[in-house]
Amino acid sequence: MSPTREPALAGQTVVVIGGSAGIGLETARQARDEGADVILAGRNPDRLKDAADQVGAKRIATFDANDTPALEEFFGQLDGPIDHVMVTAGGPYYASLADMDFDEARRALQEHPMLMAGVARYASPKVRSGGALLFMGGTGGRNPRLGLGVTSAMTVALPALTASLAIEIAPVRINLIAAGFVDTPLSASLLGDQLDERRAELRSTLPIGRVVEAADVAALAIHLMTNTALTGATYDIDGGQQLVSR
Description:
By secondary structure, this protein is an alpha/beta fold. Helix content is 44%, strand content 18%.
């Protein structure tokens, strides 16, 4: 009989910003399975409450993560230390130069790096030594093509910011998860009626022979929380999509 494994996050507290659906919700679910208390934050109170009921969250907080004063207030009001913060809030912006809404593009260019900086500033004083801040990036923008200008800029910027912040907030750790296509509600909203076609294409072309799921990304997030030797790095999870993209 094999020995019973102790839960990897027993006695720890994990905060998930953007935790009401998709990768955030699945990360919260896996963190709970590993013994952690979970705090969920997001913008939609109804979805947040439903997510909290699903995973047995310790508490929820409703605010816009890109509202810097609200972000500061949230971390300032947390009772006691926390161990890890996972941030999945925000989404990509796709547009060709000819069709680009410059206000939306400007927002997208500012949103992700400033959210990372804000969480690093306001969360790290609350995080126990060796705890982790985790953020979502992407791999798709590494292969330039029409409509990826803003996304390509973020693909380059976020790993560099992650590495720099790792020095500033040590001994708290920070890492970036760079995902390709992940089968989530966000992907469904972006692709609309092209979703099934994209799934079929990836199943036939990806080296792993299947589509990357939210559970795959969440499992990587849990590993980055528990492996205290990892900081300042970017971890790709795309099923080999970069290897076959043209």
